[in-house]
Amino acid sequence: MRDRISSERFAGRNNTDGLGLLADLAGTWKGRGFNLIARPDFKDNTDLYLQLNQTRETLTFEPIGSPVPNRGFGQDDIALFGLTYLQKITDAGADGALHIEPGIWVTQPSTDFPPQSVAKPGQLVARMGSIPHGNALLAEGVAEPFVGPPVLTVPGSQYSFSRFPSFNSTPFAVSPTAPGIVFNAAGSSERLTATTVPATPFPQYDVSVPIGPIPAGPFNPPFTLNTRTPFETSPPEPPLPPSIQGVAMQDLVNDPILLLQKDIERLVADGYSFEGTALNIATMTPLSFLTERNSGAQGATAQVQVPSFGGGIENIQFLQGESPVVGGQQELQENAQTAIVYATFWIEKATHKATGHGFMQLQYAQMVVLNFPILHLLRGTPPAYVNLGWPHVSVATLRKSFG
Predict the structure, then answer these.
(1) Is the peptide bond prior to 121 cis by the omega test (within 30 degrees of 0)?
(2) Spatial contact of 354 and 140, defined as CB atoms under 8 Å apart
(3) Domain boundary assignment for the chain
(4) How far apart are CA 223 and CA 215, in angstroms?
(5) Residue 172: which of 337, 40, 46, 290 has the closest Cα?
(6) What are phi and psi of 190, to 5 degrees?
(7) Span 20-401: which CATH code?
(8) φ and ψ at 297, to 5 degrees?
(9) Which of 122, 169, 380, 391 has the fewest CB atoms within 10 Å around its CB?
(10) pLDDT one-digit tens code per residue, 241-290
């Protein structure tokens, strides 16, 4: 029998005591990244607006400094240890606010009631976040130490030390038009996958299609505009560059995580070695991924699991939408409901092999699935309701800094 956890909370000698593999998060991180989000576009009467942003980010973690007791009924009390965080993301070109998120990361010990554990030296971790669009998330998983270059594609892993094989941006069908959710394989493109998705092609994802009016053709979407950044941005933004950091824009739209890989490739070429901690979390488990790019929902799949001890997302009613009767059946029509979040964070200690110079780097790739419908309209055919999952992908490379 363990001693009862005190009701009084006192900080330890070090404010990172108890954090374990999360301890290196403490501090302020600054850097740059990329954000891709498909969102409804009621104003322009199109299926979606594809918003693309190069970003600047500040992410600050502060240790709570004392244990947080969770009282047990079926077993002894446990203590959580954690850090609060505040994430601020702005548009790199216009400095406009894009995202702000307060939250908490915590570690949890193994438990008997219910039985929850992870193989040592891993730790159970969870992230709780509040998003200003009217969402709150609880994503859970595991922290695990690693040695070697992170993020890169290596034999047996699309992104080294990530449990997730894809952060691809291609839309996919969701219930009620398909059983469950299947994420596209890394490298899939909307243009090549379009024939497997029950909807018209989306020119927003094809950077070879100019923004603005779409010429008439025998197989056209029901709208006449290609709405993608920088369409009608205010103040007006310049056209998308052909590439960012050597990554072609079309490849970047398909898989934004390629930017993180470029950062690591440069450091490896400069002579740096790596060790650190990978955090793999999700709001639900298991998740299903296609194993072959562009194969569609009927292709071969593989399931990915992370340790789960709860988890989920809550949305305000506006995001959840309503359930009208369409064609004699009641169907949920969301404005833009967040359905799933999964992410990998790499806490990296980079050390130059020749000089010994070192620094701390934090990289992350995050997938947020937004569910909202379109009315599938082909010329000469009646409308059919189609509910799709729209990947919202964010990536960033940050360095620990002062202030």
Answers:
(1) yes
(2) no
(3) 20-401
(4) 11
(5) 290
(6) -60, -40
(7) 2.40.128.20
(8) -65, -15
(9) 380
(10) 999 999 999 999 999 999 999 999 999 999 999 999 999 999 999 999 99
